[in-house]
Design goal:
The chain has one domain. It is mainly alpha-helical and 118 residues long.
Length: 118
Amino acid sequence: MCPDDSTLNEESGALTNEERLRALVAEYETKLSDIIDLVARVRHEINNPLTGVIGQAQLLLREPLGEKARQRVETIEQLAGRIRDTVAQLRTVQRAQPHKSLEDKKAEAEMPRHKISS
């Protein structure tokens, strides 16, 4: 085996590792994107009915109620507010990773990758 052959094998092995790492990164980016999409759908599906619950509780509080009924409605409003605040925190998950469109992902995949020599 010539010295050039061993260098060639090392470079092709490094390239294979680099390709594997890129494939893993692409796979994890896809999974992360899927999670971000799921978080957006969950937020939407929870916020819509929750807004109705909070609104109805607030309307009830404007009416004359017995003390026990008023306390129950206030509890409903407070707990719904806690859920609303928790769901709002899910926005940070969406903002942490810029969402890329399918076209952006395809364009990135088609971009030529150049190995940087040191």
